[in-house]
Amino acid sequence: MKLKLTGALLLLALVAAACGSDGDSGAAASCAVGETDGDLSFYNWADYIDEESIPRFEEEYGIKVEYTMYESNEQMLAQVDAGAANYDLIVPSDYMVDTMIAEGLLMELDFDAIPNATNISDEFHSPPFDPDHKYHVAYQWGTTGIGISYDALEELGNVEPTWGFIFDPALSGMVSGGISMLDDAPESFSAALKYLGYSIDEVMVGGNEEAIREAGELLKATKASLLKYDSVAYSDDLMNGELAVAHGWSGSFAAAIFEADAYETHVYVIPKEGGVRWVDGMAIPASAEHPCSAHAMINFMTDAQNGAALTNYVYYASPNEAATEFILDEILEDEGIYPNAETSAKLEFIPQAGELGLLMQDLFVEAKG
Amino acid sequence: MAALDQSAAQADSRKGRLIATPAALYLLFFFMIPLGVIVTYSFATRTATGRTVLTGWNLSSYDKLFSELVLRIIWRSFWMASVTTILCLLVAYPFAYYLATRAPKVRNILLVLVMIPFWTNGLIRIFAIRFLLGSDGPASQLSENLGFGTFRILFTPTAVVIGMVYSFLTFMVLPLYVAIERMDWKLVEAARDLYAGGTVAFRKVTWPLTRSGVIAGSILVFVPSFGSYVVPEILGGAKTMLLGSYVARQFGAARNFPFGAALSVVLIAVMLIAVVINQRAEANRA
Amino acid sequence: MSTTMRPTKWASRLLALNAWLVFAFFYIPIIVLVVFSFNGSRRVNIWGGLSTRWYPEVLQNEVILDALKNSLMVASISTIVATILGTSLALALDRYRFRGRKTLDGAVFLPVIIPDVTMAVMMLVFFAQVFRFIDSFGPRFQLGIYTIVISHIAFNISFVAVVVRARLGQLDPSLEEAARDLYASGWRAFQKVTLPLILPGVLAGALLALALSLDDVVISAFVTGPGSTTLPVYVFSAIRRGVTPELNAISSLMLLASTVLVLGSLFLQREPKSKTNNQGE
Question: Which residues on chain C are in Cβ contact (under 8 Å) with A47?
């Protein structure tokens, strides 16, 4: 038995080594507008598409859509990287697009097959993670900031919102309710960096380890004032009073406030130091078996009306300029969802941080004790 | 006679292998080999972006295991898992005893009642507990009405233990029930006649007889508690970093597969040793 | 057991109290769950009046029904296979001496003690490598229901084996020796004596396997492929957007279904017993 075991393990190691796991190079696709090449396997975040879009797409193009959902970028990456399942269309976040391009996991898009891509406003055309705009088309975007109750704001003396609500013990001490941060290392570090006055991009891309460690110390010191770390239920808990101040994503708060009709009691704000802006994009894995169907779906979702339908359901911001006329007014006017120009200027993407990324993960664990 | 015994033993051995083979093969192919892959990964390197490359074999992942942070996490998880196990034992033993001493018809019904919560989705049950323990929830309101003030249990280690006990209590009840029910009660009767007090009879007879159930139950509770991560995140507010979350994080957000693999290997090795030692001790005692 | 040992009255009362408290502990969250499945409002913390609208919604939701179908398929197949393999493994380990027995004995525990996440990742990587290997010969494989089944069987074999083994350990070997003397063939002896004796253990193991398979989130999430989402994975994913009465309704329905099933099987078992004379318990 033991001999057999060792033999099996050795064999495996050899096979593993031989078969390496280099992604296929980003071969370009070539599709005609509206061309489909079989049923589409669409892998998307949970609850990130309205209920009508898929049936409408299926009807218009005559193909079926196999819709599977994931919880996190890393889960999606694990599946696509392993290559053990075929997905034609995925929706990675900004830094994940960066990672996947670097690892050769994405297919170059054929923009001839996506005429509606011109609907996407220019500011999304050359983001830092895909400067040549070859691998993705923006899907939804949003910001990360603070959801807070008006009561708590009053307790804090109605000052201009700042990350200090979380990081400054003098301020956080004045809040009687609970405070939470996202259970997400890059996001929490970005908030800390902004509070400390750094530029996220400069620190992470520039490799400023000192700044990261400084932020790590701040996070460690902050743990005591927090009720919890949560990336899942924070907006719910804000609505039910468990939390008074919550670090979280714009759309989550917008949807929660809408559903609980809590416009009079709660609000989402972006602190004065600035915050994070993020974009999720539609992309096609290099190993996709039905790339043309995927292109058709991208084209479909970037249509003005479909783009608007999406936003009207998920309550995140649409990168689609042409869709603006079809989006609900209450969403367009919500400064939490569509921040004004002044605030926008202070927002930054979180880049792929390489080695610093691992350091942040480790320091985050330390901060949580 | 010796030759006959020997060929009987051989036939026995052949038969044994025959019966064991299908399961053993399955485990070999669909468990041991995947496990081998993970073990291999623990010696691999992690690229800057988090991909695992099977070159540059090294032991750095194992080095990391001895850092203060990791040891603290391991200790904390061990402590919480032990508390959970002991609590489960204290609660489940009398409970199983009660069940096993009912009339047969009642016993079956009660057993079914025990199993039913087990068949609801574990996650939703935990969220129900979360609701109950919330600072605005019914438990808190009740305590307020009783004059104890609101209580903040949610997002503390206490809540995590409550959640784990809730999730795994059934694992302790069932083996204990089986052990107690199967006990030869004549021995207990005899013990009671021999020893004056019921407690002594319990200690000298009942407890040793049910020990295998206690061990089985303890393993079935300790192990998932030790590696649990959903409950600590939902009920503990992710403030108490436990081993399960830590490992999950390595395979997830941190994308550090080699380290996650190393953690897993050590975890498995330690628990395996503990279990095997126990098995051998049991066998010797029998 | 023929004589029921009744402890003192005082101890008896305490035991009963403990039992009821434990039942309360088990059931209060369940009751909350069921009550909130009738919540008129979407958010779980705000009571919006009594309403049954979620139930028809759930029953008509194709995504949920698909997930349920997948879960049931996976659970039933993996339970049956794992029970057969696990039981045979337990028997072999307990009854026979053969080379490699000690190693196998230890190895059986591995799936029980391995962390969920580790098993999930290792199965994913394993399948990926195997598929890549097979791919070079032509056929293209993908993750799907069958990969979940394979993974579930892998850990369930051990759980079943451990439970049956515990049961075997308590049996009186003289009974089986006697059986072997009585019946000419080992198979008959097994059928007539061993099997009925271990049946409670086998059933317990099977029920455990079933519950574990139906509740598994992590492993299923990792080795699932397009279109093979199982119910717990769906719930885990949906719960992110907030606990809704819908999810509670799904749980309540599953609760109802399993209760009915178990009560039904108990009822069926009862009939023949009343017909024959009270065979000693």
Answer: 237-238, 240-241
Nearest CA-CA distance, residue C102 and chain B, Å: 10
pTM of full prediction above 0.90: no
Rounded to 5°, the CA angle A212-B242-C153 comes to 120
Partner residue opposite C88 with nearest CB, options B23, B27, B95:
B23
- Residue A340 corresponds to which tokens in the numbers above? 């004004």
Query: Per the CB < 8 Å rule, is C167 touching B178?
Result: yes
Q: Are residues B223 and B268 in contact, defined by beta-carbon separation less than 8 angstroms?
A: no
CB proximity B49 to A under 8 Å: yes
Cβ atoms of A346 and A202 closer than 8 Å? no
The answer to whether A66 contacts chain C (CB < 8 Å) is yes
Using a CB-CB distance cutoff of 8 angstroms, which residues of chain B are in contact with residue C155? 31
Domains of chain B, start order: 68-285 (1.10.3720.10)
Question: A310: which strand partners?
Answer: none
Local confidence band at A12 (pLDDT 50, 70, 90 cut-offs): low
Q: Chain B window 3-62: which residues touch C at a Cβ cutoff of 8 Å? A: 9, 12-17, 19-20, 22-24, 26-27, 30-35, 37-38, 41
Closest partner CB to C128 (pick from A2, A47, A84)? A84
User: Quick one: tokens of A306?
Assistant: 């479909």
Report the mean per-residue pLDDT for chain C. Answer: 81
> If one looks up domain A33-141+279-338 in CATH, what number appears?
3.40.190.10
Instruction: State the Cα–Cα distance between residues A119 and A57, nearest whole angstrom.
Output: 18
HEC-encoded secondary structure of B237-255 = CCCCCCHHHHHHHHHCCCC
The Cα C87–Cα C166 span in angstroms is 11
Pinpoint the residues of chain A covered by CATH 3.40.190.10: 33-141+279-338, 142-277+347-368
Q: Which CATH superfamily is domain A142-277+347-368 in?
A: Periplasmic binding protein-like II (3.40.190.10)
| pLDDT over threshold 70, residue A200 | yes
Domains and CATH numbers, chain C: 65-242 (1.10.3720.10)
- Secondary structure element (H or E) that encloses residue A355, with its range: helix A355-368
**C9 interfacial to chain B (CB closer than 8 Å):** no
**ipTM of predicted assembly, 2 dp:** 0.81
Closest CA to C85 of C173, C185, C216, C205: C205
Is the pLDDT higher at B131 or at A174? A174
Closest CA to C79 of C195, C206, C164: C206
What's the rounded Cα separation, in Å, for the pair B256 and C248? 36
